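Subject: sequence -> structure tokens, single chain

Hey, anyone have a minute? Need the predicted structure for the following. Not urgent.
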Amino acid sequence: MNKKKVINDPVYGFITIPNELLFDLIEHPYFQRLRRIRQLGMAEYVYPGALHTRFHHALGAMHLMGEVIASLRSKGHEISDAECQAAQIAILLHDVGHGPFSHVLEDTLLHHVPHEQISLLLMQDLNRQFDGRLDLAIQMFSGQYERKFFHQLISSQLDIDRLDYLNRDCFFTGVSEGSIGSERIIKMLDIFDNQLVVEQKGVYSIENFLTARRLMYWQVYLHKTSICAETMLVQTIRRARELQQQGQPVYTTPALELFLENEVRFDDFRDEARYLTAFTQLDDYDLWAAIKQWMYHPDKILSGISRMLLERKLFKIVFSNHPIETSVLALLRRELRGKPGVTDADVNYLLVEGSTTNAAYVSNRQNICILTKDRRVIDIAEASDLPTIQALSKIVRKYYVCWAKNVYLPL
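Reply:
Had a minute. Here:
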């Protein structure tokens, strides 16, 4: 069987699966599951074209890794075929641990288990299935390989992950401000003293990259309507779990049922194989199938919010630069409590406050380093003559409150 396949990618054109091992990993059910996980969670409620998946993104990242390594080799750096393959495997599988709706439910379905930890567990399981052929990829992914720049390519503030998702998310949402010129950035990457650096003439491309990332966060990733829809999704899971644990059955798929009945922590994944097995069978479709059924559940909160989600009757949301005042929250609670059929307990699901942050660049954390013409390595914030780069290093926090303005609860 010919396993050197060519894929027509909407962002990069024709990309090639370079060898049989990568082909077999892409064909594996763990990776195929990513076809059923949306890249941007609930962003389609704002941008109807945002229907691309983690599968798209992972293939694109694999392609870009190959482009980066080809560029580094052209500059005289010795990178073996084994290292090239391992780096492409590591970036291909870097998101394999994502659950339904990507980041949205990481702290709801699971108990504070980052997707990176599950990705590593799945890579280790795949390594057993493939007789140890992922050893080097796992070392690179976890930062244990001696050539540290490989880990920087996989996970840093200027990694292949970000280069792909900014371009791809920009393409599918139509938000042109997210365009970053990844081809030029790749050509400007170099290695100096075992670390990833950017040639000085690439400073302007990095400035554009950081600015685009900041804009994409406020316009797409942290768009208020996306946050509102995600908040409602979290509330449906909270209510379904509460009912399930109280002995009031709700419709679930077998994979979803396990995570509704149990507060699953990372140790549970390591100690009991059934959790990892169930997780690999869980995707967006499990949640949507459940929500479609929950719309008819006798519990008015579960059925009401499920119906709102399906019909896009979203909560009202307001952003603020300061914490939401207690008096405002009290006023909203009184307003909700005055709606027909709404109890004090219901208000806990119909009113949600929170905060979100945006930092395009964080100094002193895997810095983006510029290699000057006189062979000095300096931080991008020092190399740039734009005052906005210093501003981008500032963490911006916004506070919000969501509430069911036009409450629809079947009585």
